[in-house]
Amino acid sequence: MKTALITGCSSGYGLETARHFLAKGWKVIATMRRPDRDLFPASGDIHVLPLDVTSPESITRALDVAGPIDVLVNNAGVGLFGAFEATPMTTVRDIFETNTFGMMAMCQAVIPRFRERKAGTIVNVTSSATLAPFPLVAAYTASKTAIEGFSGSLALELADFGVRVKLIEPGYCPDTRFTENGAERMRGLITEPYGLFANRIFEGFSQVVDVTQPINVAEAVWQAANDSSDRLRFPAGADAVALSRQHEGR
């Protein structure tokens, strides 16, 4: 039985991915800042642990309790929607602390464990916003794009040790708690000069038909975790797949 440790499992992609791996017969270490065991079915193969990716102490404790793992899924992240002009740099730094530096810290913590075993897979969840520019998500996109470059380099760095690195690029998914979880952080970031523009963007999103579902991301993570090739990127959702093809054709 293989073991996957997944960050950010309280909702959205992380929750769906943890349930998906559990259904596939894996042992799952589902981590989140405030553990909630009731989110998962009764099973001896699911273990819920507290983990804050912005805290080195929290990372160390969680990995020590988890024990040996085969796959790390770096899913934990926070969203931000608003005009960059109105976004305080303290907020930008907060976004990078979780989305970028927190993900890097998780990688740095597991690499020695994987390297010594000469086996292991790191799966980093980014966004289709890295494939094509979208308005009003400049800081968020920057935090995710940094991980794209980081992961590509890291994949080459670890290949000789039998450690694989993969990227998941989810499309637009209205079923996540992106807005709800970031409501306080986003308050006041759509200032008057951007009001009408933002309304047009919101209206456009509401008319998107081929949206991404959490299960699309869970299935892409599953595919990446079990992929033995050198493939790096796995778009998730019909819209992300389409954007990926456009991106490759540029």
Q: Report the helical percentage.
A: 40-55%
Largest sheet: 7 strands, parallel
The coarse overall form would be globular
Between the first and last Cα atoms, what is the distance in angstroms?
Answer: 42 Å
Instruction: Please state the second-level CATH architecture.
Output: 3-Layer(aba) Sandwich
What is the radius of gyration?
18 Å
Number of domains: 1
Q: Give the low-pLDDT segments.
A: none
- Content-based structural category: alpha/beta
Q: Give the count of helical stretches.
A: 9
Task: Name the beta content range.
Answer: 5-15%
Query: CATH H-level name... which superfamily?
Result: NAD(P)-binding Rossmann-like Domain
| H and E order | EHEEHEHEHEHHHHEH
**How many beta-strand runs?**
7
CATH class: Alpha Beta
Overall mean pLDDT stands at 93
Strand order of the largest sheet: 3-2-1-4-5-6-7
CATH topology: Rossmann fold
Task: Describe this protein's structure.
The chain has 250 residues and is an alpha/beta fold. Helices cover 46% and strands 15% of the residues. The chain has a single domain, classed as NAD(P)-binding Rossmann-like Domain (Rossmann fold, 3-Layer(aba) Sandwich), CATH 3.40.50. The chain contains nine helices and seven strands. The protein has a seven-stranded parallel beta sheet with strand order 3-2-1-4-5-6-7, sandwiched between helices. α1 (12-23) crosses α8. The longest helix is centred in the middle third of the chain and has 29 residues, at 89-117. It starts with a strand and ends with a helix.
